[in-house]
Structure formats: structure tokens, C-alpha cells
Design brief:
The complex is a heterodimer. By secondary structure, chain A is of the alpha/beta class. Chain A has one domain: HUPs (Rossmann fold, 3-Layer(aba) Sandwich). In chain A, α2 crosses α5 and α3 packs across α4. Chain A is globular and about 65 Å long. By secondary structure, chain B is of the alpha/beta class. Chain B has 2 domains: 169 residues, HUPs (Rossmann fold, 3-Layer(aba) Sandwich); 120 residues, Rossmann fold. Helices cover 27% and strands 28% of the residues of chain B. Classes of the chains: A alpha/beta, B alpha/beta. Chains A and B meet through α3, α4, β7, β8 and β9 of A and α3, α4, β5, β7 and β8 of B. β13 of chain A pairs parallel with β16 of chain B. The structure holds flavin-adenine dinucleotide and adenosine monophosphate. Adenosine monophosphate binds next to α1, β4, α3, β6 and α4 of chain A.
Chain lengths: 250, 316
């Protein structure tokens, strides 16, 4: 079977982001970008399924500005077979991403689509669910385990109360949670090999999708800052202050 | 046009996150002056419908009683919500794994954006939501005809659970998708309060060293009536189960008191707890970033501090 994975280029998770002085967004100049951590997990899972002989081809898709090619190359270096970039300078919102991915999926007909559960920049946690709805596919969100059974898959999902297992018919969509696997680092030879793999660049217009944003960001602000408080000398002082000063324990 | 709140009923009871979502709906309805309805979709929905009826300020409880909704699967619940969407200007659900699973599906089927995790209502079409692990707050305005919204519980104080007497209406159930099936669940059982509803939380990180050592935290938690939480590192290391993770990708909490023990204070962890009223950090490294957000910091070895804390709490 064929797998399609979504890989988004985001500000690296280690960067301490700063809000722009004019409140239009966050500072992205001279900031390190990486693949969204949940998408690394999606790529890793696809590669493991291929190594286990259950998958024939892995297509990595990114949507966004030209530099998103780097993100696709990373996926190719990890083991994806080919890449597709839907290039646009428009700020793509989850509904637009889902529609673009649907248009690609209609052509490529993968049996399984793996996305991250959430992009760590917009923290939306929507795209996978939206895409599954547009495709009329079943979804296994927040996955910590995927098992391929005869003609379907079983997904263990991380839910608020613990874990839940669902069975889905194929084709299906899965979004990854942190404990699904630990992504590998691409080796140097694989990074070199990835440069030669096929990477097609198309546009939203090629796919006939209207990507006009539905939400307008009016402003972006810093949250109220917490200040460091005091250091207490010992446990007795801590308990005394919690009881009598902060009054948060009986 | 009324507002529709999707009740979280997972587990056969009305989840408290529903009450925070109703509070957000009320903040919108204050301006629009319209009614709030609640949808209860479950198997044997009667007792939950009664609980929903008792929430003050609700005009109507819509009940969809079917085994297909028993486990809150996204596909059938989303199809049901879409079938009812016609009369509503806003559709809201809690920003829990239940709500996050369902609402984007609803939004896509209605061809509208979904607005995730709102913490504040500015106007009926304008909301504040955290981005970048809460390191920035975005004010967003929706141009769509229906606003499909998930609500972060810590942004809205829960409305009371009783005092109301809403009307109940049984709704027709549309044809439902059958491509997904519930197989089983492993729910963590605990006598302690739920993390998202607890007044006091004590969380352990990688510094705890092992799952057994978490009994040091549990002993203190039980003396305080507190919930137990954890960092991702503690969950990934297998010390405790995934439902205890606090952070950007775990639970978002805002108790009166949050005690972080052996947790360094990575931004992804802070994203889940920096809305707490009072933060205490216990860490042997005085440079640990957690101290930058702690109201009270105690530099020390947790293996000495936690037993002392337990003893000190006994003195009264
Ligand atoms: C996409 C993504 C999402 C993430 N989401 C989350 C999330 O939701 N929640 C989350 O928590 N993390 C999350 N993380 C992980 C996060 O970046 C950190 O790795 C994690 O929070 C670290 O956990 P920790 O503080 O327990 O461990 P460490 O950073 O290893 O800190 C352990 C601390 O314990 C102290 N310590 C050790 N021994 C003792 C002792 N005997 N006494 C006292 N102190 C001691 C040390 O000084 C140190 O400060 C995420 C990361 C990514 C990439
Ligand atoms: N621009 C994009 N390019 C590729 N994948 C994306 C993009 N936006 C979202 N995704 C996928 O959708 C997941 C969830 O994103 P979000 O709904 O924005 O939180 C991500 O982890 C990606 O797998």
C-alpha cells in the first residue's frame, strides 16, 4: 500500500519565540526552522511500516513557501520515496491545507495518510480531522500505536482518560502523538541520496483549490509575563508561606 | 440563531469541561442575546440529559440516544452535529480529546474554519487563542457564517451544574458512517481529583527517577487532596500513564497551586501550567528555568524534600 505523510515547516521547538513589535505576528527572521516534531513521528512510522514490508511507497507532502522543500528533503532522507511541494506564499489555514491534501490524495490514492496531531506553531490540531471529513474516511487521531490488520488498521489513541483502541477500514487517516515512536536521524549517505529523489512542485491553482484564509488575525500579543518569586530556605518556610501568605493550602 | 454546545459525555457522565464551554457560550450570547442549546449524544442518554437540563441558562437540551454515540466516535457524532447545524450561529465543544477529535470534522463538512482553544470572547466573531505553546496570544476574527469553536477550560470559569430546568427535545438521527469501530479502552482509574478540575496539582518530572518513586508525590498529594501530574519526560520514561501529562500537548491546567517536582521547566511544560495561581518549584538545580516562573522556589533534593513536606503537612 501507498502512504502519504504531511510535513510542515515550523519554527524549531527549541526556539524561544518573540512577538513582533507591531503585533502582526511572531519574529521569524533569523530563526531556526525544522520539521514539525509530530510530522517527524509520522514519517518515522511510515518508514517503519515500509521496512516491515507493509508499504510500497511513501510520499511526503508539504504546503507553503519555497523553503518547505528543505522539510521535504528531510523526510526523503529519513526514508520517504518522493515529495510534493504545494508552493504558495499565502498563509495556509487548516481548512485550506486539508482541501489541498484532498486534491493530491484524489490523484495519488494512498491507503493511509499520516499527519501530525498538531503543528507546534498554530497549535490548531485540526488538519487531519478536516481532511478525513472531506475524504469521508475514518480517523484515528492522537495515535500511540498503529497495527495493520487484514483489510484495516487498529489505532491506540491517547485520550484524556487514558487510552482507547479503534478499528478503522482502509483507506484511513491517522494523526500521530508523541509516544508513537522515536524518529531516527537521517544518516549522511541518506541525506545525499535524498537530494536525488523526485520532488514535484505545484501550486494551489494547479489543484483548483481556493486557499483564501477564513480567519483574520487582528493582532498577536505577548501573554502576561510571570515573574520569578522568592526562594524559600526550607520546607517549613514553604509550608508556612503556602498556608499563611498565599493561603492555597489548608 | 441560537448557539449549540456539544456536551462531553464520554464515560457515561456529563464531563465538567462542558460547564466551562457553556460559560464561553454565555459570553457570546451576552452580545447576541440568543438562546443556548446543549446536545447530548450517547447511549441511554437519559441521566446525562437530566444533568444537562439542570445547567442554568440553557434553553433546550437536544437528546440523540443511540449506541452509535456510546464512545464519542468522531465520525458518527460529527455527522449528527452537521445534521443539526442549520439553526445555529455558533457550535462549541470543550477543547478536550473528545472535542478536538470531533469539531474539525464538523467544520470541514460545513466548509468553515474551526477556531481552536479559545480563551476569551472579544465579540461574537472575534476570539483570543494561544499559539506557539502559549508564548503568543492571537486575536482572530472569523468571516464564516457558522463559528465552530473549541473552548479551553482554563479560560472560562465553569457555570454552576444545577439550578436550571431546560426543555428536552429528542432529535432525529441521520444516516451514520460505519467505517470506524470502538474496540476497547484502558481508562486510568484514580481516587484523586481530575487534573483539569483540581484545585491543587503536584507534578513529577524526570527527576523522580522511577515510577515507584512517584509514591513520594502521591503521599503528599493525598494529604492535600491534590491531583497528580507529570512532565512528558516522566510519561515517556514509563513512570506514569499518558493521561497525567501536563503541557502543550498534554493537559492544560490552572489550579490554585501547582507544585513542580524534578521538572526543569521546558516551554512545552510551561505551556500547560503557567496559568496556575501559585507555582512552587522543587529542584536541585538552582538554574532550572522552572524557577523563573515559580512564586516559591525550593532548591534541594526531592528525595529529602518530599518526605519532609509530607511530615510538615501533618503538623497543624
Ligand atoms: C512537540 C513537543 C511537545 C512537547 N510537549 C510536552 C508536554 O506537553 N509536556 C511536557 O512536560 N513536555 C513536553 N515536551 C518535552 C519538553 O520539551 C521537555 O523535554 C520535558 O518537559 C522535560 O521534562 P522534565 O522537566 O521532567 O525533564 P528534564 O528536563 O530532564 O528535567 C529534570 C529536572 O529534574 C531535576 N532533578 C533531577 N534529580 C533531582 C533530584 N533528586 N531532586 C530535585 N530535582 C532533581 C533536574 O535538575 C532537572 O531540572 C514536548 C516536546 C516536544 C518537542
Ligand atoms: N502547511 C502544511 N504542510 C504540510 N503538512 C501540514 C501543513 N499544515 C498542517 N499540516 C499537517 O497537519 C498536521 C496538523 O496541523 P494543524 O492542524 O495545523 O495543527 C501537521 O502536523 C501536519 O502533519
Amino acid at each position: 500500500m501507498k502512504i502519504l505523510v504531511g510535513v510542515k515547516r515550523v519554527v524549531d521547538y527549541n526556539v524561544k519565540i518573540r512577538v513582533k513589535a507591531d503585533n502582526t505576528g511572531v519574529e521569524t527572521a533569523n530563526v531556526k526552522f525544522s520539521m514539525n516534531p509530530f510530522d517527524e513521528i509520522a514519517v518515522e512510522e511510515a518508514v517503519r511500516l515500509k521496512e516491515a514490508g507493509k508499504v510500497s511507497e511513501i510520499i511526503a507532502v508539504s504546503l507553503g513557501i519555497a523553503q518547505s522543500q528543505d522539510t521535504i528533503r528531510t523526510a526523503l532522507a529519513m526514508g520517504a520515496d518522493r515529495g510534493i511541494l504545494v508552493q504558495t506564499d499565502v498563509d495556509l489555514q487548516p481548512l485550506a491545507v486539508a482541501k489541498l491534501l484532498k486534491a493530491i490524495i484524489d490523484k495519488e490514492a494512498p491507503s493511509l495518510v499520516l499527519l501530525g496531531k498538531q503543528a507546534i506553531d498554530d497549535d490548531s490540531n485540526q488538519t487531519g480531522q478536516m481532511l478525513a471529513a472531506l475524504l469521508d474516511w475514518p480517523q484515528g487521531t492522537f495515535a500511540s500505536k498503529i497495527t495493520v490488520t487484514g483489510d484495516g488498521i487498529e489505532v491506540i489513541r491517547e485520550v484524556d482518560g487514558g487510552l482507547e483502541t479503534v478499528a478503522l477500514t482502509l483507506p484511513a487517516l491517522v494523526t500521530t502523538d508523541l509516544r508513537l515512536n522515536e524518529p531516527r536521524y537521517a544518516s549522511l549517505p541518506n541525506i545525499m541520496k535524498a537530494k536525488k529523489k523526485q520532488l514535484d512542485v505545484i501550486t494551489p491553482a494547479d489543484l483548483g483549490v481556493d486557499v483564501t484564509p477564513r480567519l483574520t488575525t487582528l493582532k498577536v500579543e505577548e501573554p502576561p509575563k510571570r515573574k520569578a518569586g522568592i526562594k524559600v530556605a526550607d520546607v517549613a518556610e514553604l509550608v508556612n508561606r503556602l498556608r499563611n501568605e498565599a493561603k492555597v493550602i489548608p | 440563531m441560537s448557539l449549540l454546545v456539544i456536551a462531553e459525555v464520554n464515560g457515561g457522565a456529563l464531563k465538567s469541561a462542558t460547564l466551562n464551554t457553556v460559560a464561553a457560550a454565555q459570553a457570546i450570547a451576552q452580545t447576541t442575546g440568543t438562546d443556548i442549546h446543549i446536545l447530548v449524544a450517547d447511549e441511554n442518554a437519559g441521566s446525562i440529559a437530566a444533568a444537562a437540563q439542570a445547567i442554568p441558562g440553557i434553553a433546550k437540551v437536544l437528546v440523540a440516544d443511540s449506541a452509535a454515540f456510546a464512545h464519542g466516535l468522531a465520525e458518527p457524532v460529527a455527522a449528527l452535529v452537521v445534521s443539526l447545524a442549520g439553526g445555529y450561529s455558533h457550535i462549541l465543544a470543550p477543547s478536550t480529546t473528545f472535542g478536538k477529535n470531533i469539531l474539525p470534522r464538523v467544520a470541514a463538512l460545513l466548509d468553515v474554519a474551526q477556531i481552536s482553544d479559545i480563551v476569551k470572547v472579544i465579540a461574537p466573531d472575534t476570539f483570543v487563542r494561544p499559539i506557539y505553546a502559549g508564548n503568543a496570544l492571537a486575536t482572530v476574527q472569523s468571516a464564516d457564517s457558522v463559528k465552530v469553536i473549541t473552548v479551553r477550560g482554563t479560560g472560562f470559569d465553569a457555570v454552576p451544574a444545577d439550578g436550571g430546568s431546560a426543555a428536552v427535545e429528542t432529535v432525529a438521527i441521520p444516516a451514520l458512517p460505519t467505517k470506524s469501530k470502538f474496540v476497547s479502552q484502558q481508562l486510568a482509574k484514580s481516587e484523586r481529583p481530575e487534573l483539569t478540575a483540581a484545585k491543587i496539582i503536584i507534578s513529577g518530572g524526570r527527576g523522580m527517577g522511577s515510577g515507584e518513586n512517584f509514591h513520594l508525590i502521591e503521599t503528599v498529594a493525598d494529604k492535600l487532596g491534590a491531583a497528580v501530574g507529570a512532565s512528558r519526560a516522566a510519561v515517556d520514561s514509563g513512570f506514569v500513564s499518558n493521561d497525567l501529562q501536563v503541557g502543550q500537548t498534554g493537559k492544560i491546567v490552572a489550579p490554585n497551586l501547582y507544585v513542580a517536582v524534578g521538572i526543569s521547566g521546558a516551554i512545552q511544560h510551561l505551556a500547560g501550567m503557567s496559568g496556575s495561581k501559585v507555582i512552587v518549584a522543587i529542584n536541585k538545580d538552582e538554574e532550572a528555568p522552572i524557577f523563573q516562573v515559580a512564586d516559591y522556589g525550593l532548591v534541594g533534593d526531592l528525595f529529602q524534600v518530599l518526605p519532609q513536606l509530607s511530615q510538615e503537612l501533618d503538623k497543624h
